[in-house]
Design brief:
Residues 416-493 form the AMP-binding enzyme C-terminal domain. This protein is of the alpha/beta class. The chain folds into three domains: 12-191, Rossmann fold, CATH 3.40.50.980; 239-400, Rossmann fold (3-Layer(aba) Sandwich), CATH 3.40.50; 408-504, ANL, C-terminal domain (GMP Synthetase, Chain A, domain 3, 2-Layer Sandwich). The protein has 15 helices and 27 strands. Strands 13-14-15-16-17 form a five-stranded mixed beta sheet. A four-stranded mixed beta sheet has the order 2-1-12-11. Helix 1 runs antiparallel to helix 2 (39-56), helix 2 (39-56) crosses helix 3 and helix 10 (260-271) runs parallel beside helix 11 (296-303). It is globular and about 75 Å long. The chain starts with 11 loop residues before the first helix and ends with a helix. The mean pLDDT is 93.
Amino acid sequence: MTAVDWAPGTDWWELVVARAEATPDARMLIDEHDRTMTFGEYRRRAEEVAAGLAALGMSRGQMVSWQLPTCLESAVLMAALGRLGVVQNPIIPMLRTAEINVIIGQLHSDWYVAPDVWRNFDYAAMAHAAAAEFGCRVLQVTPGELASLPRGDIAALAPYEPSSDVRWIYYTSGTTALPKGIRHTDASALSVSNVAVDAWKIEFGDVFPIAIPVTHVGGIMLIAGQLRLGFVLGLFEGFDPVHTPAAMARMGATHLGSAVPFFIAYLAAQRANPDERLFPKLKVCIAGGAPLPPELHEQVKAELGGGGIINAYGLTECPSPCSVRATDPEIAFQGSVGRPIHGVEVRVAADGELRFRGPQLFLGYVDAALDADAFDSDGFFRTGDLGEVDEHGYVHITGRIKDIIIRNAENISAVEVENVLHEHRSIQDVAVVGVPDPKTGEHAVAVIVLAPGAAPLTLQEIGEHCTARGLARQKTPEQLDFVDVLPRNSMGKILKHELRARLVG
């Protein structure tokens, strides 16, 4: 009853059916408005929506771009599109006209599904402008209103046909440039859920509230994971640091995610009421998408309870190839991103670049011209991240090839400096970037968010702190910049190109 067998030959819709048949009355989804859905209801509503979409002219093999927040409507649409056998292109809600035109134009999308107005942005106008330029059909869906999804007669649906073709196209987060299209089959997309099965100590009936975009590749990871394991997903359209932690607590959260701003908010909510556990059922927290300050795991473990923060690692091209396991010894939680997940191989190239090969590896980019530089001669994906594997087999991320500051011809890892600065009690959040310097080539700038009530730091104080922690003098930041918040994408990754542009400009 607790788990549904899944083999690489099983596709997305077949997994939906298998779970619905195994535990039809078990709770699957709950949203921030307290709407709920069981696994059986999920399958039936998805089939009804598939029939409604088919009646509108949507059919197998068409390209369907859809841009909705994390809500019941998104989850149902994802399954309905799987039932129809279309190629679905989930788009994170924060993207706007520049990115949408690239995506719709590159994919020649047949359909674009979007809200009317959501969070005070007129998606309908953007969708109809795209339709006028690229010829796609537009379907408006209202988050919070299941009735806005078309419904039809299930009996009118054509028989389901499995496929090993590309079924998912995701676009990268775009932290440095316009996003790139990434092609996945059901087999590769569903293999992402191996990390939940192997590493995260999630059991039947557990509750995992999420406020990340379900249209991110992490969305299919979590929904496929819950279909395999039978846990409950709590769906939040966005994250409010004041109100969302309490709402997640009311759901009875056993697991929490997923990036530094979220954990800071959970801790703040707990500290506001220190005499009562906010999350009494918490087993473990799960992080991914961005590096974590080393001390955050200890703070979460001590103050929120549970096993602290499991750190995972991945990219849209190769999602979650490694993760700390909930059962790992404490040494794994100290700065590593764990060991490779079952079936994944890791390689460290001569230049220190991490490379992965495994069942969740994408087929290639939409722009095939990019593929030659993406893979090495043995088919390993070149991540662009620098790292190492320690004597225990744990992978450590030490920086990005493009996130190296070159000062006087010496390489400085921004991540290394950030980890040291995160230990300062007056610093809540920090990013280190390189800017041009006529004497040294580049110098390091620490962009700092101060802890509540902390006074601005001086370069001397930063230098003394870095020296006390053994950081080489040439790696110490030579410029400070104080901000209220660091710019991040929807998965918590810091948008360093925005910081550089502001500093240089």
